[in-house]
Amino acid sequence: MKPALFAITLGYTVALVLSQSTPPDIQNSFMLSCKAIITPSGSCPNGWTGFKNSFANKNPNTMQIRDYDAYFAVFPIPSAIKGILLWSGLQDLAAQVSKKAAGRVTSSSTLTSSLIIDDMQTKRRVHTWCGKVGVPGGIDFVNPCPQFIPNTPVFTFWAALSQNLASSSDDVVFYLTPGRYSPNNFFGLYELPALLKTGSKAKLLAVLNVPGGNKCGEGQLRDLATAVRQGRPSLQYKCYDTDGSVDALVKIIKSYIP
Which of 63, 69, 101, 255 has the smallest number of CB atoms closer than 10 Å to its CB? Predict the structure, then answer.
C-alpha cells in the first residue's frame, strides 16, 4: 500500500498526516485520552461504545452527522449556551481566548466530547478511523480509511461537533477569524447554517477579526455580513477589527458577557 499524503485544513485538528487504516489499538487510545480528560473516568467505557457505534458497521463514504448521536449522547454539548466561540484557522489562539474567558464562552477547547478526540488524534496519533459492513466488530483495521472529505468518519465527526455546538447557542456567538470567510469551510458549511436556520436562538454574531485578511466590511467579511443579513435578518451582526491579542479579544467578549 502506498499511503496518500493529505492535509487536514478544515477541521479542528490541523495536521499533515498519512492516509492509514484504523489503528488496532484505537480502543485503548480512546480510553487513555478519555481518562486524561475526565476525572472521574467512569463514563469512558460508555463513551467508547458510543464512539464505536457511531462509525462501526457503516460505509465510511456515506457517513451522516446524525451517526455521531450515539457519542454525543454520552458526552453531550450543553444546551442554551449564552456565549459560544467559533473559529477558523486559529485553533491555538481560540484555546488561549477560551482559557482566559473561562466561564464566559464555550468552544471546542472546552467540550469534553471534543477534547477526547483531539487528544486521541494529537497525542495518541490516532489520525483516522473507519468502519466496514460485515467484518467482525464492524471496524476496518486493514484497508486505508477515506481521506478527510465530507461524509467520511473523521470529517463527519468534526462536522457534527461544529453543527451541534452552533445549534446550542442561546445568545451571542463569537467568530474568531483572520479576516476571512468561506462558504466552504467548517464555519460556512455547518456553523453558519445552524445559526441561520429557522428555530435558532442565537441573537448576535460578533466577528472577532484578527490581522491576516480583510478588514470588517471588506471583501470576504462583507460577504459574511451579506450572508447573515439575507439568511436571517433577525440575527444581529457586528464585526470588530482587533490587533489579535488575547486581551483585546477577551475584552470584547466581556463587554457582552461580564
Answer: 255
End-to-end CA distance of the chain: 55
C-alpha cell of residue 53: 457505534
| Helices within the chain (DSSP H only) | 26-37, 44-55, 69-74, 91-100, 112-122, 153-167, 186, 192-196, 219-231, 246-256
As a whole number of angstroms, the distance between CA 201 and CA 199 comes to 6
**Taking the CA of residue 134 as centre, how many other CA atoms within 13 Å lie in the half-sphere pointing to its CB?**
1
Burial class (CB in 10 A: 0-12, 13-18, 19+), 234: exposed
- Name the residue among 251, 239, 246 with its Cα closest to residue 94: 246
* pLDDT one digit per residue (tens) for the chain, 258 residues: 222 222 333 333 333 344 699 999 999 999 999 999 998 889 999 999 999 999 999 999 999 999 999 999 999 999 999 999 999 999 999 999 999 998 899 998 899 999 999 999 999 999 999 999 999 999 999 999 999 999 999 999 999 999 999 999 999 999 999 999 999 999 999 999 999 999 999 999 999 999 999 999 999 999 999 999 999 999 999 999 999 999 999 999 999 999
**Residue 134, C-alpha cell as written in the block:** 460485515
Three-state secondary structure call for residue 141: coil
CA distance 40 to 201: 33
- The DSSP 8-state label assigned to residue 57 in this structure reads T
Helix, strand or coil, per DSSP, at residue 175: strand
